[in-house]
Amino acid sequence: DFELEDNLKMAEEYDEYENEEPQNIMKELSVEKLCLNICVGQSGDRLTRAARVLEQLTGQPPVYSKSRLTVRQFGIRRNERIAVHCTVRGPKALEILEKGLKVKEYHLREENFSETGNFGFGVDEHIDLGIKYDPGIGIYGLDFYVCLGRKGNRVSRRKHCRARVGRQHKITKEEAMDW
């Protein structure tokens, strides 16, 4: 009698376990990196102030970007510094992304997502991210670009024994939007 009850309990637990959909940890999405960009369109004092904004936000020194072409209408010469950008990874990237999505009220348009599962959006004023306004710096807008990844993506980038990521393992636009 006691064994029968015990066996019934085990059978019920097994049925419950079978009905649950197994969670594959290899399929979980994570933020590989967050790229922040402020394009000023001119070199000089405005660019250094924009670099200070990025440094306040990320806590790491930004990198300067140069123009590729000379555009006379905008007054830009070739190889002139016109923008600053910064790449953030790990928990700091998630923290900054959370601030940016809060400004956008967690709603992004479908056009913000790429076919490979990455997405980007812009913020008009950096003071919305929680940085105190400084009259000496001014107000700058910045672009966020998020690269999503899965465990196992290193297979396509490593030096030794490089291989392709399978179609089932690639991130789609719909998966990124659900995330």
Can you tell me about this structure?
By secondary structure, the protein is of the alpha+beta class. It starts with a helix and ends with a helix. The model has no long low-confidence stretch (mean pLDDT about 80).
Give a summary of the structure in a few sentences.
This protein is of the alpha+beta class.
Task: Show the helix and strand layout.
Elements: H1 2-19, E1 30-39, H2 45-58, E2 63-66, E3 81-88, H3 91-103, E4 119-123, E5 142-149, H4 173-178
Antiparallel strand pairs: 1-3, 1-5, 2-3, 4-5
Keywords for this entry:
179 residues; alpha+beta; five-stranded antiparallel β-sheet; 4 helices; 28% helix; 20% strand
Described by strand count, sense and barrel closure, the largest sheet is:
5 strands, antiparallel
| Spatial strand sequence of the major β-sheet | 2-3-1-5-4
Structure annotation, total helices? 4
Derived structural class = alpha+beta
* Beta-strand residue fraction: 15-25%
Q: What value does the average pLDDT take?
A: 81
- Which stretches are poorly predicted, pLDDT < 50 over at least 5 residues? none
Could you spell the SSE succession in H and E letters? HEHEEHEEH
> Cα-atom Rg, whole angstroms?
23 Å
Looking at the structure, what is the overall shape?
A: elongated
Secondary structure tally: strands:
5
**Helical proportion, percent range:** 25-40%
Distance between the termini: 49 Å
